[in-house]
Amino acid sequence: MCGSSHDHYEVLRNYIMSYIKGEEMMCKKNVFLKAGILAFLSILFATPIFASEAELNIPVLSAQQNHWLMIGFLICFAGMVFGLYQYSKVKRLPAHKSMLDISEIIFQTCKTYLIQQGKLLIVLEVFIGACIVYYFGALQHMGTNGVLIILAWSVVGILGSYGVAWFGIRMNTLANSRMAFASLEGKPIKLLDIPLTAGMSIGVLLVCVELIMMLVILVFMPRDVAGASFIGFAIGESLGASALRICGGIFTKIADIGSDLMKIVFTIKEDDPRNPGVIADCTGDNAGDSVGPTADGFETYGVTGVALISFIVLAAFPQYQAELLVWIFVMRILMIITSIGSYFINQVVSTAVMGDKEKVNFEASLTSLVWITSIISIIVTFAISKWQLGHYPDNLWFKLSIIISCGTLAAALIPELVKVFTSSKSKHCAEVVTAAREGGPSLDILSGFVAGNFSAFWLGISIASLMFVAYYTSTFGLSNFMEYSSVFAFGLVAFGFLGMGPVTIAVDSYGPVTDNAQSIYELSLIETIPNVEKEIEKEFGFKPRMDVAKQYLEENDSCGNTFKATAKPVLIGTAVVGATTMIFSLILLLRKALGIQPEMILNLLNPYTLLGFLCGGAVIYWFTGASTQAVTTGAYRAVQYIKKNIKLDDAASLSASTESSKEVVKICTQYAQKGMFNIFLAIFSFALAFAFFSAPVSGPEAASFFISYLISIAVFGLFQAIFMANAGGCWDNAKKVVEVDLKQKGTPLHAAAVIGDTVGDPFKDTSSVALNPIIKFTTLFGLLAMEIAIAPGMRGIAGIVGIVFFLIALIFVWRSFYAMRIPLDQ
Predict the structure, then answer these.
(1) Which of 224, 286, 381, 492 could disulfide-pair with 403, CB 3.0 to 4.6 Å?
(2) What is the CA angle 242-55-299, rounded to 5?
(3) Radius of gyration over alpha carbons of the chain, in Å?
């Protein structure tokens, strides 16, 4: 079992040493691992290949184009000022000391968690950095300065993901106590404004930082390393997001399940301060719903941009490349302005509609924000495209605007479809409650499965329909400007998904603030403090309304659950649609290096195509099981500990001991690290193994295996993620309906709803959300893996090396269950 959670580096080091020494492995598996190390070393002697990311030759920009991009820098810096202003606005809000103390404890726990993740990222970057140095230095014979620049950008990518995660967690842990305190005023408009202000701060700052980094590469980097710098930056982003997403998703659901099940076992209230799992749950809300999504969002915007840049450089005709690149960046920069403008418009509308009403629909305001941003973004898309590209023939600007608008429309339409299946006001959610009333947990769970499956169907059909519109539009003359214009159209749809990026991040960040605020209210014991009403009235100038405070917090938490659910399919959809563009880069690589035409790849008459599809599906289902297994075993340990140490007798303290709470956090961290370690190395090894299996030896047929594997990962991952995210969201809000609308806490119906929610926890917040960075990391790393595999020096031994890495992957697959499973009673 994994060592102490206090030192992440030691955990990883001990694992590696235990593998090499054979302390945790049978002799036969140890042989395979050592063979894998030797196989990896043998790669270092492969001879150079003929095409690579290093050949992403970024065109030289004109003075006018550089002028527009310099204005873009100013807009990004202004956006950062807006984000920091929103941060200071939240920080200045008042809160009672009892609530501030709890939020500070949560932040300090989150801080410890993030420091541990940072140590792990340093270790992972050492390995990724070694690969970059070898690949660009040894294989591509790039100069030392060029290699160091690319290496530095990979570090910048990781630091970007890590840095915005820090900002997100600090912002949310400031907002949670302020929101908890604001609930005492009995003014719903304030409970809407605080988490939305925090979310916009995170969303705008995140996009601005990412754009500044990419603008620096485009404007200031030497042309001979700019393309490779984009790739290095994207790999760094993806690595950081993958680690933070997987670890955070496992951590948060171990804590959540451990805390929630105590409500059934001991019939105690939500967020009971005597429950040692509550502080871990609050930490998990931020680790899983703030750190992970923030890093994931940062990576999503970066990687999608790099995918489009790669396509333009590889497939657009040379005379159009520079203007198309500038157009893409101008559109990305203007999303900052449209999102901020839409936020202020929506704020005015919401204030006018809600006013001083005591009964409001929190979801309505977030819905209007999404639609206002979408409409304004589409209008700006057409206007800017006309301005930038209006001089080209065949109405190029109009066609590209339609294609991007398909993605922007999807980013607004998908949340509406998700709400049909997950909102506390939806018929599907009501059906789950009705089923649970008569059939208990069994029918609760089955009804949620139905909601998840139907949601996958309707969202899949919607995405396919909008992609078809994009494809159909691309057939009207886009081929006069580039090769394979339909692939570019799909990439632009992914770009359109992100057209209102800051708002998408803002509504996603809304949830962890509302969730934590409810917990802080209970943990502060504000209602038991002597003379607290008079104290608040004297110091803060209002009479607290404790009769409605908790009700407002619970209603808003339900809204947060819904909009967390709406953001997930948008991000996973972006990953899948954008992956087609990255995979196309790999197809072009095979054409340039081996002369294999794209039409020969993914031919259904080629058996390797079907084999690749099957392997991709298998890996997705293993990943789902492995991530859920880590949660299951960790939650078992957490429940076991909490049941032994919770103090509920009359003589006990009103709150759990600090030591007990720390121990639950330690259990969550331990299993999050251990689970992520097994999953990451298996994904890494599968990518290498399948890339080597695709190296053509006796003919070109095998080359399609890895391409079809990547496509399968994307397609299976899309539907698995949508199903799991929306089923989990439906179970979660069904519990909220029982608690808030029906007020049946402590009843058999409530117990059934809580059980359904705990089943949905790893569905919606672990497995489904981690598939997004996993798809992108596999695709990005797949480019590198395939280039090494098809190097002339590797072709004779590629099959053997592939088998070794495949066996190593199977070892970690085996470990992800058998080394993680709950020990059976003797």
Answers:
(1) 492
(2) 20
(3) 26
Residue 661: CA atoms inside 13 Å, Cβ hemisphere, count? 22
The SS3 assignment for 711 reads helix
Helices (H) and strands (E) in the chain, counts: 23, 0
**What is the pLDDT, as a whole number, of residue 55?**
58
Alpha carbons 635 and 820: distance in angstroms, whole number: 12
Write down the mean pLDDT value for the chain.
Answer: 86
Q: What is the token pair recorded at 130?
A: 């070694």
CA distance 97 to 520: 12
Phi, psi (deg, nearest 5) at residue 119: -65, -40
Q: Is residue 314 very low, low, confident or very high in pLDDT (cuts 50, 70, 90)?
A: confident
The amino acid that residue 180 corresponds to is A
Q: Output phi, psi for 628, to 5 deg.
A: -70, -35
Burial 116-135 (b: 16+ CB within 10 A, else e): bbbebbeebbeebbebbbbb
pTM (whole model) above 0.85? yes
Of 686, 688, 694, 692, the residue nearest 602 (C-alpha): 694
- 3-class DSSP assignment, residue 482: strand
723 contacts 624 by C-beta, under 8 angstroms: no
Average pLDDT over residues 757-763: 95
Instruction: Tell me the C-alpha to C-alpha distance, in Å, between residue 265 and each of 40, 133, 273, 640, 751.
Output: 50, 55, 16, 12, 9
Calpha distance 407→396 (Å, rounded): 17
Q: Is 316 helix (H, G, I), strand (E, B) or coil?
A: strand
**Tokens 């290699």 map to which residue?**
147
| Chain position carrying tokens 């479809």 | 417
CB atoms under 10 Å from CB of 59, counted, come to 20
pLDDT one-digit tens code per residue, 99-157: 999 999 999 989 988 998 898 888 888 877 887 787 777 767 788 888 899 899 999 99
The mean pLDDT of 751-758, rounded to a whole number, is 95
Residue 39 pLDDT level (bands cut at 50, 70, 90)? very low
Contacts of 49 (CB under 8 A, 6+ apart): 139, 593, 787, 788, 790, 791, 792
pLDDT over 60 (residue 426): yes
Residues 233, 218: Cα–Cα separation, whole Å: 12
* Contacts within 8 Å (CB) and 24+ apart, 99-103: 99/177, 99/180, 99/181, 99/520, 99/521, 99/524, 99/526, 100/177, 101/524, 102/177, 102/520, 102/523, 102/524, 103/173, 103/174, 103/176, 103/177, 103/516, 103/520
- Which letter, b or e, does each residue of 491-513 get, where b requires 16 or more Cβ atoms within 10 Å of its Cβ? bbbbbbbbbbbbbbbbbbbbbbb
- Sequential DSSP letters for 500-555: THHHHHHHHHHHHHHHHHHHHHHHTTGGGSTTHHHHHHHHHSS---HHHHHHHHHH
- Report whether 240 contacts 218 (CB < 8 A): no
pLDDT confidence tier of residue 825, bands split at 50, 70 and 90: low
Structure tokens at 459: 């969202």
CA angle, corner 822, sides to 816 and 825, nearest 5? 145
- Name which of 766, 198, 82 is nearest 514 in CA terms: 198
Please tell me the distance from the alpha carbon of residue 97 to that of residue 178, in angstroms, as a whole number. Answer: 11
Do residues 514 and 179 touch, judged by C-beta distance below 8 A? Answer: yes
The CA distance from 696 to 550, in Å, is: 64
Q: How far apart are CA 600 and CA 408, in angstroms?
A: 33
Residue in 383, 402, 370, 584 with CA at minimum distance from that of residue 492: 402
- Reported as type and span, the H/E element at residue 217 is helix 188-220
